[in-house]
Design a protein that fits this description.
- The structure holds two protein chains of two kinds.
- Chain A is α/β, with parallel strands linked by helices.
- The longest helix of chain A is centred in the middle third of the chain and has 22 residues, at 196-217.
- Chain A has 19 helices and 23 strands.
- By secondary structure, chain B is α/β, with parallel strands linked by helices.
- Chain B has a single domain, classed as Pyruvate-ferredoxin Oxidoreductase, domain 3.
- Chain B has eight helices and six strands; from the N terminus they run βαβββαβααβαααα.
- In chain B, strand 4 (69-74), helix 2 (77-83) and strand 5 form a beta-alpha-beta unit.
- Chain B is globular.
- Classes of the chains: A alpha/beta, B alpha/beta.
- At the A-B interface, strand 1, strand 8, helix 10 and strand 21 of A face helix 1, strand 2, helix 2 and helix 3 of B.
- Strand 8 of chain A pairs antiparallel with strand 2 (33-37) of chain B, so a sheet runs across the interface.
Chain lengths: 580, 189
Amino acid sequence: MKEKKIMLGNEAIARGAYEAGVKVSAAYPGTPSTEISENMVQYKDSLYCEWSPNEKVATEVAIGASISGVRSMASMKHVGFNVAADPLYTAAYIGVNGGMVMIVADDPGMYSSQNEQDTRQIARAAQVPVLEPSDSAEAKEFTKLAFDYSEKYDTPVIVRTTTRLAHSQGLVELCDRVEVEDKPYEKNIAKNVMMPGNAIKRHVVVEKRMKDMAEDANSMDINVTEYNDTSIGIITSGIPYTYVKEAMPNASVLKLGMVHPLPRKQIEEFASKVDRLIIFEELEPVIEEQVKSWGIKAEGKELFTLQGEYSATMLRKNLLGIKQETKAAAQVPARPPILCPGCPHRSVFSVLKKLKIHAAGDIGCYTLGAVAPLSVVDTTICMGASISSLHGMEKGKGSDYVRDWVAVIGDSTFMHTGMNSLVNMVYNQGTGTVIILDNSTTGMTGHQDHAATGKTLQGDVTKAVNIPMFCKSIGIEHVYEINAFDLPELEKRIKEEVAREDISVIITKSPCVLLKSNHFTKKCKPLSEECKKCGACLKPGCPALTKNEDGTIDIDMTMCNGCGLCRQLCKFDAIEEVDA
Amino acid sequence: METRNIMIVGVGGQGTLLTSRILGGIAIHGGYDVKLSEVHGMAQRGGSVVTFVRYGDKVAEPIVEVGQADVLIAFERLEALRYIHYLKKDGVLVVNDQRMDPITVVTGVAEYPEHILEDMEKEHKLLKVKAMEEAKKLGNSRVFNIIVLGLAAKHMDFTKEDWLEVIKNTVPPKTVEINLKAFELGYTL
């Protein structure tokens, strides 16, 4: 018997890619897709994997590898797929040489994202097929199959997951890696150079390919019809399939393994055999609208929401009308995520708060600077947008307007797309102040290296992009590096640079407290008798600090990382530094 | 066997993921089908986190529904209360008797409820342990979660030997001894 292992959906995808003989894998970290690349590393003797600075670059790396004749993969979260859309739309025209697969992870319920978009819609627009597994075992199998389809139909193939699949674990049967022979590269300008004359002809190929795939979909093994009780028939895919099996084990089900293009004949036949056709798909009515456009009577979003995750409970309630006797959730204080104790971002934000400065924010842990009591971050849009949106504010309202504004962006996000925005600010004579919160890692997604850390995904030591030198080289005169916990220097510098009618960059440096290389030798301890109960130390909202009933403060020594921010804020020396 | 539903709830950073790995391991060890569902990413930064573990002959969905948990393992009192409606009527709540104020309480927006455990004990079988204090006595506060797991283990379908073996194979090699001690402590409470 083959070995069975319990694996995260993402781990299983990495295993599938390994078994499929992938040679090149590229990605930028993003919840819930990050663990795919983290799990590729264990196979580095058989393949190459990298963190690219962003998803567009990762996708182009995969396209290049495919053109050269090897199997390749790019992985990303749904919003990263927007960044990757540009190369993807044209890669669909070019097709592949070695099989090329993109893994795209959606986030219904927005556990860790800024929006709830549906990857299937972009895939449809780009005319690229989409497979959707429903558990870890399928995640591995579908990933392998995606490579076969990619080569068979000469197209990139997307495997779509969701948070619930990516971060669920299930049993997976391990197989050996199949070493796929490299395909020879043959120069083919008509296929690989997408200028109008060639692209016009390739578009014809794309249309025919999608038609062929739609026809073949009717007999694909991964589109499975299960006939049981035919009073209700449900079309579903992915994780929602498991909810159907849980709530309605006797219903007839058409489980789609390929959600684009759809198997029209198979769906028409299924619809004809059931009394009531239900379409159960999270997020957008992608299947539903197509099915209805064929004149088939079906119900979908009339019953189920466009937002958030689905559940078996939802099926029982909304479809079967079963009211379950369950207790309501207790009314309890919310516990939103917050910056860790000792986080260098808190220190920088405490200064911005004191100076009453607005911050155009970005994507990363420091987005949490918007949460009370800090409430410093004014805006969060997408990766890199802090710098460019600050620039837009200045161009809209004039340079006086940004004299109490800064842009805040992390080091990894700066490498992702912040660099472009900064170049724009220089080029178009912006005078804003940019704070690069350099904690030497990609924090929120769980500490991945990037182009400025000096280490690769495979663990090799490499050249580190020098952020201050980069800023100077594009023409910025005022570039400063400051320790993120040096409050007097931070305050002085931020005041000066914000007032300055010229572009400046302040790089606040201090490694993320969760980095394993970080060793804390000190902790902070309150001296109750000295405490004047002013509350200054509590203002930045460190979770290690709480107020005692008498108004003095307590510091949880198991949580404290000894950053000393509270000690610096205390005017009465009522917090001392002790050895950890 | 009917599918068993276990939940682990707590505050991001408390080690719910390690605990769920051990639970996944023990279910496989017992020859069951198993599915787990976890929270990664932003919510882990000090937020409320929940992990679902389901095992049985054949498991479909990876999440536990409201009112269906056989065992609810809570690493903090308020989090126990937040998810108590998931517990079956005859389910068991195993709770680390510790208070961690969420930022909403620290900033005075909300109040930390009083008598949480007493109120829940009226309706459910409840086992509690001041695991953080016990863990400190063992010399490593980080293993408090394994003490709580040990206490919960008595209400699940595996022998102590099975648990010890799975823990040995799951935790980092350097921490095997202290984790086994922590489990024993919880198990014998």
